[in-house]
Design brief:
Strand content: 25-35%
CATH superfamily of the largest domain: Pseudouridine synthase I, catalytic domain, C-terminal subdomain
Order of helices and strands: EHEEHEEEHEEEHHE
CATH class of the largest domain: Alpha Beta
Largest sheet: 10 strands, mixed
Distance between the termini: 14 Å
CATH topology of the largest domain: Alpha-Beta Plaits
Number of strands: 10
Shape: globular
Length: 253
């Protein structure tokens, strides 16, 4: 039995999220079905660095699984690419030590959120970016982002449905990047993120840039530690990408 680590990308538009559900198409189910075919009906479970919600994309999701098949990693990757649908891509696959864990050994995660500011709605980016045709003060957004960097209790910036009791997380970096006149990207890097946390922070920063929320109000909401203290909405999922996952130590054999 060998353990394999894979870096995958997927277009989340056609999935009801990453994790297997009773109803609805998911990334996990598609990959496990492919593995089951390769293993002649034997069920092979995969473990990811974390879940993504319906409509959320990934450029660098990481999974691991155990397999009795001794196949060269390059050929294993190619076989999985052929057997999975076209909205999933296997970017890398390698054999790792048996104690590697895609979820529990993460060092940091990077998410990016894409915003299109064009005056007219672009139907070709509707699944991949948020259309936001309003005036934005990017410098004010950058100043607001500084308030959120560091270790904080992010109870005000996660869904009320979040089940975790410990809502303390550390954000290492937040960047507001102006790619061109119509596109901005909000880049987040931290040790972990709560349910809807990136989407709520994005909504808050957009509100600051549009003068709907002041930086002092953002600070008060952070200190309040409750979702009701913040009026900003959870932005739509289609602009969100799990971009990269980093690990604490080298796990390649």
């Amino acid at each position: 039995m060998a353990r394999y680590k894979a870096t995958i990308a997927y277009d989340g538009s056609g999935f009801n999220g990453y994790q297997i559900q009773p109803n609805g198409r998911t990334v996990q189910a598609e990959i496990e079905q492919a593995l089951q075919k390769m293993h002649k009906g034997e069920q092979i479970r995969i473990t990811a660095s974390g879940r993504t919600d319906t409509g959320v994309h990934a450029k660098g999701q990481v999974i691991h699984f155990d397999s009795p098949l001794m196949i060269e990693p390059a050929k294993y990757r190619q076989a999985l690419q052929v057997m999975t649908p076209l909205d999933i891509s296997f970017l890398e696959l390698e054999q790792v030590s048996d104690d590697f864990h895609a979820r529990f050994q993460t060092k940091s995660k990077e998410y990016r959120y894409v915003v299109k500011r064009g005056k007219f709605f672009d139907p070709f980016s509707r699944h991949f970016a948020l259309h936001y045709p309003y005036v934005l003060d990017l410098e004010k957004m950058r100043s607001a982002a500084e308030v959120l960097i560091g270790e904080h209790d992010f109870s005000s910036f996660c869904s009320a449905k979040t089940e975790r009791e410990n809502k303390i997380r550390t954000i290492y970096e937040i960047e507001v990047l102006e790619i061109d006149t119509e596109t901005i990207i909000l880049r987040y890097k931290g040790n972990g993120f709560l349910y809807n946390m990136v989407r709520i922070i994005t909504g808050s920063l957009l509100d600051v840039g549009n003068d709907k929320l002041s930086i002092s109000e953002l600070e008060k909401a952070l200190k309040a530690k409750k979702r009701t203290a913040l009026s900003s909405k959870t932005v739509a999922p289609q602009g969100l990408y799990l971009w990269k996952v980093e690990y604490k130590e080298r796990e390649t054999m």
